[in-house]
Amino acid sequence: MKNINISRILIVLLLGIAAVSCMKIDNFDAPSAKINGRIIDKTTGQNMLVDQGDTHIRIWEKSYSTNPTPQGLAVKMDGTYNNTRLFSGTYDMLPYDGAYWPCDTTFNVKIGKKGTTVDFEVVPYLHVVDFKTELDGLNLTLSCRLQAPVTENLPQVVEIRPFLSLNQFCGAANHIDYYYTDNYKIGIRKLWNKLGDASGEGFETYSVTLPVKAGYTYWCRMGVQVNNTFKNWNYSEIIKVEIPKQ
Predict the structure, then answer these.
(1) How far apart are CA 192 and CA 198, in angstroms?
(2) The whole model's pTM is what?
(3) Which residue spans of the chain are classified as CATH 2.60.40.1120?
(4) 102: which of 2, 24, 148, 175 lies 20 to 30 Å off by Cα?
């Protein structure tokens, strides 16, 4: 009986030693390479007006694979991006899934621990201009016009919407759901030649009136959507509106 128990103990010990010997120590450092930059509206020289998470920088790490899986770097509402948790290496980079004309890939970007800055220029499908707010009691009217930096082959303009938020983050991903209904959208579904001239100036001022609550503070903007693959939005700037208490 003792021999059997000793044999079992030896077997367990041998299996444990074998398991430990098969374990490999991970000698890789945690990712700490840094990249930052801006998405710039090529027609104005200013940062692209977006909402949090609206658009990304697609990157491919090429140091170890000829067919790498893409990653996405989120772009902030102010049009900047920043990531400090990448592996050092050589990357291709492309602004992706935003409301702008397709652009070229930037190849062979070296990203390391010292940090790299890469800015991208894009051309928005549309500009939302002359954005105004007008308060009449508890009714808030938002208005805007459209401009098209490039009119040729511009996708169909689908709709214009107001976006209201209770904080400074405002857009399709951050808004008060009550206002995101068909009751307050401006349906368009027209090509540009029905909306503006060949120079890109829109013919019409668009407006929508919304009920608001006394004593509230709203962050407001308007956005326009075209019928492209991603159906993201071009935005106006954000205006803060304080509703007086009654």
Answers:
(1) 9
(2) 0.85
(3) 33-122
(4) 175
**Architecture category of domain 127-242 in CATH:** Sandwich (2.60)
Count Cβ atoms within 10 A of the Cβ of residue 203 and give its class: 0-12 exposed, 13-18 middle, 19 or more buried.
Answer: exposed
Question: Can you tell me the distance from the alpha carbon of 47 to that of 78, in angstroms, rounded to the nearest whole number?
Answer: 7
Q: Which two tokens stand for residue 30?
A: 């945690």
At residue 2, the pLDDT reads: 47
Which of 74-107 are b and which e, b meaning 16 or more Cβ less than 10 Å from the residue's Cβ? ebbbebebebeebbbbebbbbbbbbbbbebeebe
CATH fit for domain 33-122, picks 3.50.7.10, 2.30.30.40, 2.60.40.1120, 3.20.80.10: 2.60.40.1120
Q: Which amino acid is at 226?
A: V
Nearest of 158, 127, 157, 159 to residue 145 by alpha carbon: 127
